[in-house]
Amino acid sequence: MANRNVTKWSPRVAQNAGAGATAGGVVSLCLHPVDTLKTLVQARAGGNRNLLPIMSALISERGLGGLYRGLGSNLIASTPISAIYTHTYETVKAGLLRHIPEDMSALAHCVAGGCACVATSFVYTPSDCETADASARIVYK
Questions:
Q1: Structural domain harbouring 21
Q2: Residue 83 maps to a domain
Q3: Is the distance from CB of 78 to CB of 25 less than 8 angstroms?
Q4: pTM
Q5: Positions of the Solcar repeats (predicted)?
């Protein structure tokens, strides 16, 4: 006899995960150049750490594409992380809101956010280590 209490895959799950993945990808596209420059500034031991000369040197050596070097690995990590976060947050929030009084709904949001952070840390931590390694390879190459 089949277990009827098994959670079914619904279009809402795919919608939440898809929205999160899209948001994560857009954020990565927008902020990757800033992260690249931050890494270059941090890698400078002494000397000129001003942003504009560092950005100018990067663009003159590698073109505008140099600002987006390493974007692929960033997207590979950020899209599933954002999908997991959004799906976990929405699922936990919806489950809690059904069982707690309306005047305590803020608690559902806090717990959902915490659960989503824990869920994403299983992907984020290893990907952050890989991103740092890739950034170091770019800087010291």
A1: 15-139
A2: yes
A3: yes
A4: 0.73
A5: 11-95
